């Protein structure tokens, strides 16, 4: 299910042209974005639990109507109470007092349960919306592409704080509007029956107040939008310091970091001050508007009381009804700051969904350009693209041949994201089971870009990348024997990438080893604790099994720590190799994956790849890498001309290797 990005061009079809990068002042745009964000949760086609949500919403609406009925009841009770007081009717006074006090405990549950079920419904809506937006964010690697292009800022905040604010405010305003409509109907009849001109005065007063509020507070929409961004930027700066504390400490960069933090904080504070000044101007009018309400109904209806045409209690009743109705029709006046903040939230989430849709269209067009094997199925599964995107890389999959083909790259030409500069041109290579290929070349010749293209992360260029799936045998022990004799055939494995700086997931030591799978997907025979422990010992990390978590006391594979902080880069690289051995793919692609290891550890890691029967393709500059590979692919760029030379590792002398890398 993809409830928010069902059609790649949906945003443009509905009138939102492209991705708007700032707050929108167009009410129609805000409304369309709101409908697009809010409607999926309540429709059966996009949410299988929509019926349950609708029933709960109906219950909340019913309780809201009950709250309005209680307000009307107390309006009449108050009239009778003050009439008895004005008439000095002692018996009537105490009778009304008893009725009033007896009614209160009977009606309190209506208000309490309305708030309770409303909050519960908001939590369920937030959970559903966050989970679905997160899945669409990761679908088709949109998260990677959006991050690289910088289309939207701080997606983390949009998926957490903005979704929470959206669901909370949307539900709150829906109940407020319902309450206002019911109040308006209920109390209008009361007020009109008392004195029709008073009702006319109220309408004129409310319309005038709304128009003035819109004029004064309109800039708050843009200010709130910018405030969300500046606060998120400041928070991100703090997170970066935490993640790069060691580097900052080595550089003695404390003073510079403080200056940058002060600068970002000042931007947030300056914008907040703009908001405070504009809120001040709005508050002047709101305060005047609010206090006039206390006098206006009495001033209009007082002549009737002086002439003896109405009782004193009617004055109180009319003031109460006037206040209720004016609050209902003056929603914009009293809630303008909240509405401005809500508009900014809608803009940020709407912009985020539009970015996902725009990226989805690119991905679908790229998929349409792929005509081989699995690409066709992917096209049908994801969407229908009317036109193929020219100049894109074709990705094909298939079963391995008898020769044990794993990867084939044909006529691959890569360009920079803007399409202006060439990175590689007409590159051809193939990897078969048992191969070991070292890619060398000076910085800037496109080595890492080739790896990204193989991984499907780089689509600017032309050529074909074929990935052949083979049935991998069961994992082996350190001596090369099968760790699982009962396992036959195994599962389909793909290509596994090891970057220079490994990714440490949030979780236990077991999670680190099984990633990108989890313990529920692990098979007991292939991923037993004994096997995982053995792999850690292979990569010289057996001491990690003795570490314990301070809070829970969990040890070994169940220890949950911040592994990126408590392990050195060399230990992280060895743990990444352990993860590689546990997953045991057909092909491992290593991008400077041993740069932080000593020579002995590096040799051990590469020997383990051979022991576990894993073919590998490496990118690196260290002279020691040459002896671990059978073939070398040398990439060159001289005077704008690109060339690639494939040779046996034994044919390359060390001097040529050093000059090339």
% residues in beta strands: 5-15%
Strands side by side in the biggest sheet: 6-9-10-4-11-12
- Terminal residue distance: 47 Å
Work out the helix count. 21
Query: What is the overall shape?
Result: elongated
Mean pLDDT: 79
**Class inferred from helices and paired strands:** alpha/beta
Percent helix, as a range, is 55-70%
Number of strands: 12
Cα gyration radius (Å): 34 Å
Largest sheet descriptor = 6 strands, mixed
Describe the fold and architecture.
- The protein has 661 residues and is an alpha/beta fold.
- Helices cover 59% and strands 11% of the residues.
- The chain is built from 21 helices and twelve strands.
- The protein has a six-stranded mixed β-sheet with strand order 6-9-10-4-11-12, with helices on both faces. The chain has a four-stranded mixed β-sheet with strand order 1-5-2-3.
- The relative contact order is 0.08.
- Residues 7-17, 367-390 and 471-493 have low confidence and may be disordered.
Features:
alpha/beta; 661 residues; six-stranded mixed sheet
Short description:
The chain is of the alpha/beta class and 661 residues long. The chain has helices spanning 10-13, 27-38, 50-86, 90-138, 142-149, 155-194, 196-217, 219-243, 245-251, 254-306, 312-329, 331-334, 336-369, 373-382, 447-455, 509-514, 529-538, 563-566, 569-583, 599-611, 654-660; strands at residues 394-399, 405-415, 422-432, 436-440, 461-469, 495-498, 507-508, 560-561, 587-591, 615-619, 631-638, 641-648. The chain starts with 9 loop residues before the first helix and ends with a helix.
């Amino acid at each position: 299910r993809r409830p928010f990005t069902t059609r790649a061009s949906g945003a443009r079809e509905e009138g939102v042209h492209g991705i708007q990068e700032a707050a929108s002042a167009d009410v129609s745009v805000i409304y369309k974005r709101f409908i697009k964000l809010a409607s999926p949760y309540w429709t059966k086609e996009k949410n299988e639990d929509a019926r349950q949500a609708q029933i709960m919403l109906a219950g909340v609406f019913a309780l809201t109507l009950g709250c309005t009925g209680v307000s009307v009841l107390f309006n009449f009770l108050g009239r009778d109470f003050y009439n008895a007081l004005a008439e000095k009717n002692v018996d009537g006074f105490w009778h009304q007092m008893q009725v009033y006090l007896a009614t209160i405990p009977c009606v309190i549950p209506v208000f309490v349960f309305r708030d309770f079920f409303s909050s519960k419904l908001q939590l369920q809506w937030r959970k559903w919306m966050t989970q679905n937006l997160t899945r669409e964010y990761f679908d088709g690697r949109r998260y990677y592409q959006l991050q690289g292009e910088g289309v939207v800022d701080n997606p983390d905040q949009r998926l957490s704080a903005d979704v929470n604010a959206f669901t909370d405010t949307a539900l709150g305003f829906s109940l407020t509007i319902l309450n206002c409509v019911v109040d308006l109907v209920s109390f209008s009849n009361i007020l009109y029956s008392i004195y029709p001109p008073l009702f006319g005065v109220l309408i004129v007063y409310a319309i005038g107040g709304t128009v003035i509020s819109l004029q004064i507070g309109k800039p708050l929409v843009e200010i709130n939008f910018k405030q969300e961004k500046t606060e998120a930027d400041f928070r991100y700066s703090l997170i970066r310091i935490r993640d790069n504390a060691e580097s900052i400490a080595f550089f003695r960069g404390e003073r510079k970091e403080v200056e940058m933090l002060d600068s970002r904080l000042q931007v947030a504070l300056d914008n907040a001050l703009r908001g405070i000044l504009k809120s001040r101007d709005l508050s002047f009018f709101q305060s005047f508007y609010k206090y006039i309400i206390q006098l206006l109904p009495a001033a209009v209806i007082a002549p009737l009381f002086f002439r003896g045409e109405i009782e004193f209690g009617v004055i109180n009743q009319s003031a109460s009804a006037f206040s209720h109705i004016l609050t209902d029709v003056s929603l914009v006046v009293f809630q303008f700051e909240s509405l401005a903040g809500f508009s900014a939230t809608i803009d940020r989430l709407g912009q985020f969904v539009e970015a996902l849709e725009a990226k989805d269209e690119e991905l679908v067009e790229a998929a349409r350009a792929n005509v081989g094997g699995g690409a066709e199925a992917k096209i049908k599964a994801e969407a229908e693209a009317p036109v193929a995107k020219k100049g894109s890389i074709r990705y094909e999959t298939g079963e391995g041949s008898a020769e044990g083909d794993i990867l084939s790259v044909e006529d691959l030409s890569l360009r920079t994201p803007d399409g202006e500069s060439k990175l590689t041109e007409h590159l051809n290579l193939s990897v078969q089971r048992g191969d070991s290929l070292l890619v060398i070349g000076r910085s800037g010749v496109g080595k890492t870009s080739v790896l990204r293209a193989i991984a499907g992360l780089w689509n600017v260029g032309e050529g074909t990348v074929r990935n052949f799936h083979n049935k991998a045998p069961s994992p082996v022990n350190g001596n090369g024997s099968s760790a699982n004799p009962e396992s036959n055939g195994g599962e389909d494995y793909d290509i596994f990438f090891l970057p220079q700086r490994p990714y440490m997931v949030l979780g236990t030591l077991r999670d680190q080893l099984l990633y990108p799978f989890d313990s529920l997907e692990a098979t007991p025979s292939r991923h037993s604790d004994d096997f995982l422990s053995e792999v850690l010992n292979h990569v010289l990390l057996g001491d990690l099994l003795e570490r314990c978590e301070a809070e829970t006391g969990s040890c070994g594979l169940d220890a949950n720590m911040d592994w990126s902080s408590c392990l050195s880069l060399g230990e992280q690289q060895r743990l990444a190799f352990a993860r590689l051995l546990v997953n045991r793919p057909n092909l491992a692609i290593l991008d400077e994956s041993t740069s932080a290891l000593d020579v002995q550890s590096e040799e051990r890691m590469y020997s383990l790849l051979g022991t576990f029967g894993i073919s590998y393709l490496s990118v690196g500059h260290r002279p020691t890498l040459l002896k671990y590979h059978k073939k070398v692919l040398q990439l060159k760029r001289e005077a704008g001309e690109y060339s690639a030379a494939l040779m046996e590792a034994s044919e390359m002398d060390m001097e040529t290797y050093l000059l090339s890398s």
